[in-house]
Amino acid sequence: MESVYLETTIASYLTAWRSSKPVMAGQQDETHEWWNSHRQQYELFISDLVLEEAAEGDPDAANRRLEFLNEIPVLEQSEKTDALAKALFLGLSLPPKAEYDAFHIAVAAIHGMDYLLTWNCRHIANIKHRLKIESICRSAGYEPPLICTPSEMMED
């Protein structure tokens, strides 16, 4: 069974109030469809960082996010994760606020995840970063995960 690392935006889209913005509402619908109809095809994983981010903000919303993540195995972070995250952060020239994004990629790569599922299309699922992410991971001795959105993981 293929493995999927769920980045924090997935839990956020599953639990957020329906957006009034059509594009975001569509992404929320796609996330629900993937969760309800496709996730069973994969072995799901998260990290402590996902739990940390999901616990932030409004307490009711945080509790809803954490409920979705409750049963999902947590991948450990290590010095290897920190080193790869730093290389990704610097290599991608990410802004300071995007430091966690590099950690999500690093955790998924170090643990050999097949996919990293996210709606963060600015710093993670960004086609302009893909070749650099792959190069940095491989240079460090890790195969990068295929980074995608829920809509890209659904069969027709």
Question: What is the fold's blueprint, element by element?
Answer:
Elements: E1 2-6, H1 8-15, H2 22-37, E2 42-47, H3 48-54, H4 59-69, E3 74-75, H5 79-91, H6 99-110, E4 115-117, H7 127-139, E5 146-148
Parallel strand pairs: 1-2, 1-4, 2-3, 4-5
Order of helices and strands: EHHEHHEHHEHE
Question: Strand order, biggest sheet?
Answer: 3-2-1-4-5
Number of strands: 5
Rounded mean pLDDT is: 94
Our Rg estimate from Cα atoms comes to 15 Å
Proportion of residues in helical segments: 40-55%
Structural class given helices, strands, pairing? alpha/beta
* Through-space gap between termini: 20 Å
The low-confidence runs, each spanning 5 or more residues with pLDDT under 50, are: none
The portion of residues forming beta strands comes to 5-15%
- In the CATH hierarchy, the third-tier topology is known as Rossmann fold
CATH class: Alpha Beta
Counting structural domains, the number is: 1
Number of helices: 7
- CATH superfamily placement: 5'-nuclease
Shape: globular
What is the level-2 CATH architecture name? 3-Layer(aba) Sandwich
Major sheet:
5 strands, parallel
Subunit arrangement of the protein: single chain
